[in-house]
Amino acid sequence: MSHKRVLRASEAIRRELGFILDRKLADPRIGMVTVTRVDLSEDLRYAKVFVSFLCDDEKRDESLRLLRKARRFVRGELAHALRFRVAPELTFLIDDSSKNYIRISSVLKDIEEEDSEGPSEQPDEDDGGGSQEDTGSA
Fold first, then answer.
1. Which of 58, 80, 83, 95 could covalently link to 36 via disulfide, CB atoms 3.0 to 4.6 Å apart?
2. Tell me: the pLDDT tens digits for 117-127?
3. What is the Cα–Cα distance from 94 to 32, expressed in whole angstroms?
4. Can you list the alpha helix ranges (DSSP code H) found in 44-87?
5. Does 3-115 carry CATH code 3.30.300.20?
6. Structural domain boundaries in the chain
7. What share of the chain is helix, strand, coil (3-state, %, to 5)?
């Protein structure tokens, strides 16, 4: 199967899952969920769906459990919306990349603040091994 076809299908699944989870899944306990990435197998039968939640870790784990419980409903809606003969088997996974982005951003900001706080001590420029005094001879 063409790699381009897999990429197109994966992007279509990501968009449609975002719509289904936002509009059709009527469980307020799940909260704000974003589909960040979909990794689709070459035969289009299995999809790893990476999601992120806008909540703390405890609520996130509960939301993921509820999302996994609603997997059959979501898969049926996906098959209907995309007109797939067989919808891929969905596996929901947490995407922690946003936490990594925030952590990296924070570290870079700290480094920038340290650099802008004042002149750092740099060694005097080496002038070639000793001071050269003007002896007056040319």
1. 95
2. 765 555 555 55
3. 13
4. 57-69, 71-82
5. yes
6. 3-115
7. 50, 15, 35
